[in-house]
Automatic annotation (TrEMBL):
Name of this chain's protein: Taurine-pyruvate aminotransferase
SUPFAM superfamilies: PLP-dependent transferases (SSF53383)
Gene Ontology MF annotations: pyridoxal phosphate binding; transaminase activity
Cleavable signal peptide: none
Transferase is among the record's keywords: yes
PANTHER family per the UniProt record, alphabetical: AMINOTRANSFERASE, AMINOTRANSFERASE CLASS-III
Assigned protein family: Belongs to the class-III pyridoxal-phosphate-dependent aminotransferase family.
Cofactors: pyridoxal 5'-phosphate
Keywords: Aminotransferase, Pyridoxal phosphate, Transferase
Alphabetized Pfam families for the sequence: Aminotran_3
Length: 452
């Protein structure tokens, strides 16, 4: 135990630590020190019910899981690391278990972050373009409001303008197509086949760019940080049809949705679509260890196994993809989800949570409630008739009022110009009805306090 007192920690934080997504302004944010289940305790001893699964949707089986910690510790004592150019028992066991939940996919490339997993996918697409299409089929289409990472190339595929601001110029060859948010649909209310109409907007972009230049499309199965957007019925069937027609690879970014967040092992499994590449990170080991995966079909793997040229294979390495405690922890995480039937709880508690959130629609500033499983969002508006987004400062105040009540929720944060108006609720898979009731009570009281 450190000999530092509370003030020394606060001063050390202000003086030395550069936080993610935070402007210090001379104040230290909450300093977390301990967690158990869904509960988090800060340096001052205040306890919070964490409805964010670690702030960014990743501590999916809850805090204090000795099984995962022990699995990682035992592996580190046995062998902490060897470069992933070599085989390892933890990577083999984990990959086999992971693929048992991913029919149609057969190869697992391990790295250490979601951004890195998506970079691998982009490199695969670009290299296949060189090997199979004379370098022409290199463009990657991404969707407005989706987010794929924090590196320059993943920001090049980012549909959130405030995330991109001041970081250009970006990697060429990335092209955007429109989001599929039914609440803000450009089509008349009651439009039939709305999902198909949204999906055809992808085809319009492909045709404009030239199908022979488009190698892949990358999508979050359910948009997470961009506003908790569940695509309308028929959307993914049409996306799949378009991609097959023009020979376009489908990359599913499951960094948030993957490993059970939506009630199935992967978000895309709610829809009639078979991806060529699936990326994942946050929940792979419930954030007990940093690990990400780029999972592919055998066809994608085979396309990068050309032995006629010494450079015609996937020449990529991730140093910390060789940290063996990570797949050991990830394997234990999957076993916990299986043995405790946590996906069933995600479905049941997700339904209960959404039912409670739907009751908020009677409030004049709650425009929409949407989500799937334990990935739920509330869109706040200044006026229901115009759907004008509520000012970001008021949304921040709602979240602050909840924190004062001991409940932590998330929100769209420095993502859009004038559209950071969605609060998200995404507790760990072990959440109970009583805990959801606490979240809903704090939310109702906070909305009344801030918005009347």
């Amino acid at each position: 135990m450190s000999a530092k007192n509370t003030n020394e920690y606060v001063n050390g934080d202000i003086k030395n630590v550069w936080h993610h997504l935070m402007l210090h302004q001379g104040n230290a944010p909450m300093i977390a020190v301990e967690g158990k289940g869904l509960y988090l305790k800060d340096l001052n001893g205040k306890e919070y019910l964490d409805a964010t699964s670690g702030g960014v949707w990743c501590v999916n089986v809850g805090y204090g899981r000795d099984r995962i910690a022990n699995a990682a510790a035992e592996q580190m004592k046995k062998l902490p690391f060897y470069a992933a150019s070599c085989g390892s028992q933890p990577a083999i066991d984990f990959s086999e278990k992971l693929l048992s939940h991913m029919p149609g996919l057969s190869r697992v490339y391990i790295s250490s972050s979601g951004s890195e997993a998506n970079e691998k996918a982009f490199k695969m697409v670009r290299q296949i373009s060189q090997l199979k299409h004379g370098g022409k089929k290199y463009k990657i289409i991404y969707r407005d409001r989706d987010y794929h990472g924090t590196t320059i190339s993943t920001l090049s595929a980012c549909g959130q303008e405030e995330r991109r601001e001041q970081y250009g110029p970006f990697t060429p060859g990335f092209v955007e197509f429109p989001a599929c948010l039914a609440y803000r649909s450009p089509y008349p209310e009651g439009t039939k086949n709305l999902g198909e109409k949204f999906a055809r907007e992808l085809e319009a972009v492909v045709l404009k760019e030239g199908p022979d230049t488009v190698g892949a499309v990358i999508l979050e199965p359910i948009t997470a940080g961009g506003g908790i957007i569940v695509p309308p019925e028929g959307y993914y069937e049409t996306i799949s049809e378009i991609c097959k027609k023009y020979g376009i690879l489908i990359i599913m970014d499951e960094v948030v949705c993957g490993l059970g967040r939506t009630g199935k092992w992967f978000g895309y499994q709610h829809f009639n679509i078979q991806p060529d590449i699936v990326t994942m990170a946050k929940g792979v080991a419930s954030a007990y260890m940093p690990i990400s995966c780029t999972v592919t079909t055998e066809e994608v793997f085979a396309a990068l196994q050309d032995t006629t040229d010494k450079l015609s294979y996937f020449r990529d390495i991730s140093t910390f993809g060789g940290c063996l405690a990570a797949p050991a922890a990830a394997l234990e995480n999957i076993k916990i989800i299986e043995e405790e039937s946590l996906l069933d709880n995600v479905v049941a508690m997700g339904d209960y949570l959404q039912q409670g959130l739907q009751e908020l629609l009677s409030h004049s500033n709650v425009g929409d409630v949407r989500g799937k499983g334990l990935l739920q969002g509330i869109e706040f508006v200044a006026d229901k008739a115009s759907k004008k987004p509520l000012e970001e400062e008021k949304v921040i105040a709602v979240c602050g009022a909840m924190a004062k009540r001991g409940v932590l929720v998330g929100r769209t944060n420095r993502s859009f110009v004038g559209r950071n108006n969605i609060v998200n609720v995404a507790p760990a898979y072990i959440v109970t009805k009583d805990q959801i009731d606490i979240i809903l009570k704090a939310l109702r009281e906070s909305i009344t306090e801030v918005l009347g």
